Amino acid sequence: MTEAGLWCERELGYRFENPDFLARALTHRSAGGKHNERLEFLGDAILGFAIAEALHQALPEADEGHLSRLRASLVRGETLAELANDLSLGQQIKLGSGELKSGGFRRESILADALEALIGAVYLDGDLPAARALIQRLYEGRLKNLPPPEQLKDPKTRLQELLQGRGLPTPDYEMELVEGEKHKQTFTVACRVPALDTHTRGRGSSRRRAEQGAARKMLAEIGGD
Amino acid sequence: MTEAGLWCERELGYRFENPDFLARALTHRSAGGKHNERLEFLGDAILGFAIAEALHQALPEADEGHLSRLRASLVRGETLAELANDLSLGQQIKLGSGELKSGGFRRESILADALEALIGAVYLDGDLPAARALIQRLYEGRLKNLPPPEQLKDPKTRLQELLQGRGLPTPDYEMELVEGEKHKQTFTVACRVPALDTHTRGRGSSRRRAEQGAARKMLAEIGGD
User: Fold this and answer.
1) What is the CATH number of the domain that holds A47?
2) Which end of chain B has less Cβ packing within 10 Å, N or C?
């Protein structure tokens, strides 16, 4: 068996009938040849379904908003990259020479995509129960320790959901002011909801924090809190 | 059998073992009591998976971007509402009195959500093959006549994907100017990509058209076209 095959059996508990599926799942586009993007497309959909079903079963009293936020937190790139790191997946991925040097976000998305591709590969090589078993193994700890609703609340997300629920377009965020020296800056961001002809401002030590603050004020203003 | 049960058998080709699932799938939140939002959450995930799998099989040469755009076009609210209209689903939905009077977008999303809830209900009442058979029946015509890649290209989507691929935040769109009389207005929208310190402008007879124009120019400017 190949080294990747041994790794897969040890870490994912799955032995491939057709090792081509495994090789493809571990090949990033930058390596040239047959890469993992189509498998990632399929794996992403299987993961979304399996996690939705697991949450629907595990939380019979939870409303749709809570289930959706939980699902988003479990299938987002950051979480997938953490799971991939626990498996030392990075060492198995075939990359082009340019990508080998890149770090940060690129690396996180490469790991997340490869993990989704592995789910797709197990589904095609095996069947849905095999893919579900892999997802169950990956998410066992997280599904047993689901965060409470408050911990999932993010003002920008809540604002967007609230506006969508009212049939309105998403808000605009605009950076209005950056003050202070480098690495000690304060940002001021405006949040606008044109359809409601109103705006709020948020300040913070990062663009993200300023936006979340502006979204929080908007929620208070339009009655979403 | 209830009237809804007869409708379901005739239009969806499915007979419920447990009619409570059907009743719940057809009950909008506004009607009070047990409503269809949790079923919608589950049905949305099943639909996403089934369509991804169907596209992956039907188009063995298509790249991930094309598959993703096709999937998005097939599962978006507008498409679901069209499918629901073909089934006269609206007449079967139980709504609260307030919602009965609302039109337009609200109605579209109520239809789309109820159709997803029906998929979830068939899955829980039956099994995955039953839900897949329903999805196959609903999408048969559309899966046989998939639009070509060009027809799916939407500048805003392409710009967002390009920026995400480069690890950058999504662009901001801001309405700058509205000219002309009511019903004959021209909109001017700015598209900003703060991380690249650049902006473009688009004009059009609707906000959407102006945004798409601005996104098209931004794609040209940053080398995405």
Assistant:
1) 1.10.1520.10
2) N
